[in-house]
Amino acid sequence: MFKKGFYCVLIICFIWCLILCCGIFLAPFDPFKTDPSLSLASPDNTHLLGCDRLGRDLLSRLLTGAAPSFLTAIIILIISLCAGTLVGLLGAFNRNRFGQFMKFITDLLLSFPRSIAVIFIAGTLSSGILGSSFALCLFLWPHFARITYAIANDALQNDYIKQAKISGENTFRIVRFYLFYEIKDQLLITALLDLSAVILALSTLSFLGLSSQPPLPEWGSMLYENRNYLVSAPHLLIYPTLCIFISAFLFNLLGQMYASRHAQGRINL
Questions:
Q1: Dihedral, CA atoms, 221, 235, 52, 196, nearest 10 degrees?
Q2: What is the rounded CA–CA span in Å between residue 214 and residue 25?
């Protein structure tokens, strides 16, 4: 039953990702075209989710805004994952001054309150989505570095890896054929859980005006634009909020279910 539930959630996440990535091609109207006669129009047969204060179709803007919200989060996560994994492995293999220095940098960045630090860096840079992406990457990669370092450091003490070193295996082969299988599951679980956090963080920064800027239809900026119409046109805030919630919920659920599946596999072994 659990296995069926996991694959069901995986399929739903895959379909949702396709919608997010191809949203710009599914938009029924031009997301930038304004029509004052449709200002704050309620949902109907033509405009399924209604229109915003400038008469722009809300569904088209939600679908078009999926790419800045989702693909940017994916890029941030990939950069942070690669950088953190590399730093963690370097620290595990080099226990000299370089390794200690990288460990100190990792601990230093992890000691900052991430939300406040990201807002401060993004606000200081004032470069839109690039500045917010840099700020998120800066404080996200130490998370992966700490996990990689802890697992790799323990794995390097195993007899089979010591034997591989004695046999003349180089560092790349040890990482590829031994350490990779030790760290891949934990990194994947962490990445899935962090993906929902990055989506929420990007939306929050856009709402604060520190990421995507109008007229780019990003979910967080759409909430900021329509914040004054909560009573008169609540659909303008409900639907972007639902998109953010569904994205964060699905990837968080998938990460938790994969973690449970991984733990059950370890127990069965």
A1: 20
A2: 20
Helices marked H in 112-158: 114-125, 128-155
Q: What is the mean pLDDT of the chain?
A: 85
Q: CA 257 → CA 43, 111, 151, 197, 254, distances in Å?
A: 36, 29, 21, 17, 5
| Cα–Cα distance measured from residue 256 to residue 267, given in angstroms and rounded to the nearest whole number | 17
Q: Cα-flanking dihedrals φ and ψ of residue 51, to 5°?
A: -130, 160
Rounded distance between C-alpha atoms, residue 155 and residue 179, angstroms: 7
Give the span between the Cα atoms of 117 and 73, in whole angstroms.
Answer: 18
Q: Which residue has the higher pLDDT, 261 or 43?
A: 43
Over residues 173-196, the mean pLDDT reads 85
Query: What is the distance between the alpha carbons of residues 92 and 81, in angstroms, rounded to a whole number?
Result: 16
Q: Please state which of the ranges 73-87, 136-150, 174-188, 204-218 shows the lowest mean pLDDT.
A: 204-218
For the chain, strand residue ranges (E) read none
pTM score, whole prediction: 0.85
Residue 110 tokens, joined? 């992890």
CA 164 – CA 169 distance, rounded (Å): 6
